[in-house]
Specification:
The complex is a heterodimer of chains A (225) and B (205). Chain A is an all-alpha fold and 225 residues long. Chain A has one domain. Helices cover 60% and strands 2% of the residues of chain A. Chain A has 9 helices and 2 strands. In chain A, a hairpin with a 2-residue loop joins strand 1 and strand 2. In chain A, helix 3 runs antiparallel to helix 4. The radius of gyration of chain A is 19 Å and the shape is globular. The two termini of chain A are 14 Å apart. Chain B has 205 residues and is an alpha+beta fold. Chain B has 4 helices and 7 strands. A 5-stranded antiparallel beta sheet of chain B has the order 1-2-3-4-5, with helices on both faces. A two-stranded parallel sheet of chain B has the order 6-7. Chain B is globular and about 75 Å long. The termini of chain B are far apart. The chains are: A mainly alpha (225), B alpha+beta (205). At the A-B interface, helix 4 of A face helix 1 of B.
Chain lengths: 225, 205
């Protein structure tokens, strides 16, 4: 997708500017056109596991943006000196470093959240979105535009998680970010939404809506998939 | 640039060292806060099992203040008890216990009432058991069963039972279906701490 040619970024002539004219396209592609969760269906494990509350989803989204931007920057900076044979080992080392840094900061400054997210922050090390973007984009692009790509994909993941988290928390507990918004006199929380099956149902609906809106995964536009 | 094996080894080593240094720096930077959080967590567990009222949104330092105001530590024999004068049920004494679970270590607190034979509360605050099965030991439903249970059997033999065929003795609670191994191990570690309490800790003070 990075190699598909690059329409000009708003304000930049084609092929110029700090992102080589690819900034806006790259960002839009990560958040919308090739959204990592809703279109590529990557990173599903954590997307299903942590979205029972909106707050958890948001922190997980921030984690992915942080790791995605940091990893893409360093993988891109080192792309010309990294031996090809061990590039994946190098990528995992960089990813792991960023993930552990985030996890440590969470443990120190946001202890309750760290307990709630449990192992899922650490498991970002094996998140296919991060590794995928490092391999597919950062290895063959310049640092700045690689950071934009990490930001776009991290935001794409964060937005999807926030939407799922919003609806699961609302339906499952009648509250948003812990504040009761649906009154208990007339609303009975539906526990299904906060349990694992609720995550599958919510994600299914979201992917369907995303596909209908972006018309992604349609053979006439994207080639057969 | 020639990218032979030697270069790859050198590159991997350098990258590894840089990553390790970065992580060491972050660890050093956050160490004191992490230690404070761990201490607050420990204090929260003790306050919970002793039924000391505290605001659930309290910060680490507020929890420590409540702990220092209301909770005393007493060494009896080799055991350290955390005691609290409960306004309704009298003096409560709690003691830590631990032991192997099915997948990893289990740690908890046993809280006894003034007579030192009636359980006030049991809490399993750290475990790695299967969520939904053995993991249910930390659920309120399982832990609340221990309230008011005696640590003496009908014939006066010390020990509690976590039984699968219906708890009908004053020292028995119901086991969790599908978590027989975890329940057996929980019973074992509870009986070990009860034995230690009976043997020295609980009765000479």
């Amino acid at each position: 997708m990075a190699d598909r040619g690059s329409p000009a970024c708003v304000g930049c002539a084609p092929g110029t500017g700090p992102c080589g004219g690819k900034g806006m396209e790259t960002l839009r592609s990560g958040v919308w056109i090739t959204n990592p969760v809703a279109v590529q269906v990557l990173g599903i494990c954590s997307a299903l596991a942590v979205t029972n509350r909106l707050e958890n989803s948001l922190v997980m989204g921030v984690a992915l943006v942080f790791v995605g931007v940091g990893t893409n920057l360093f993988v891109s900076l080192l792309r010309n000196v990294t031996p090809r044979r061990i590039r994946m080992i190098a990528e995992v080392a960089i990813i792991a470093t960023f993930v552990i840094v985030f996890d440590q900061i969470l443990k120190a400054y946001y202890w309750e959240m760290s307990k709630q997210l449990g192992p899922y922050v650490g498991l970002i090390i094996t998140n296919c979105i991060i590794m995928g973007r490092a391999e597919a984009f950062a290895l063959s692009n310049r640092p700045l535009v690689s950071m934009v790509d990490g930001l776009g994909n991290g935001l794409g993941y964060a937005v999807v998680l926030a939407i799922i988290g919003f609806f699961r928390e609302l339906v499952g507990t009648g509250s948003i970010l812990g504040h009761q918004v649906l009154l208990s006199e007339w609303y009975t929380p539906n526990q299904l939404a906060v349990l694992a099956p609720g995550a599958f149902v919510a994600l299914g609906f979201l992917i369907a809506i995303f596909n209908a809106l972006t018309r992604a995964n349609q053979t006439d536009e994207m080639g057969s998939q | 640039m020639k990218k032979g094996s030697l270069y790859a080894v050198f590159y991997a080593a350098t990258l590894g060292i840089i990553c390790a240094l970065a992580l060491t720096a972050v660890d050093g930077f956050t160490a004191s806060r992490k230690a404070a959080n761990a201490r607050a967590e420990e204090v929260r567990n003790i306050l919970t099992v002793l039924d000391v009222g505290f605001d659930s949104a309290a910060t680490s330092s507020e929890l420590l203040a409540v702990y220092e105001r209301d909770v005393r530590t007493e060494s009896r024999g080799e055991l350290t008890f955390y005691t609290y004068e409960h306004p309704e049920v009298g003096k409560l004494s709690s003691v830590r216990f631990d032991g192997p679970g099915l997948w990893g270590p289990i740690e908890g607190l046993l809280c006894l009432r003034e007579d030192m034979t009636t359980i006030h509360a049991v809490s399993f605050y750290r475990h790695e058991e299967t969520p939904g099965l053995g993991g249910e030991i930390s659920s309120d439903a399982f832990q609340d069963q221990f309230r008011g249970v005696s640590i003496l059997g009908p014939s006066g033999v010390p020990g509690v039972g976590v039984v699968g065929d219906g708890a009908d003795e004053p020292n028995e609670v119901d086991a969790i279906s599908g978590a027989t191994m975890t329940c057996d191990k929980v019973e074992e570690m509870l009986n070990r701490i009860i034995e230690e309490v009976r043997a020295g800790g609980g009765f000479d003070g």
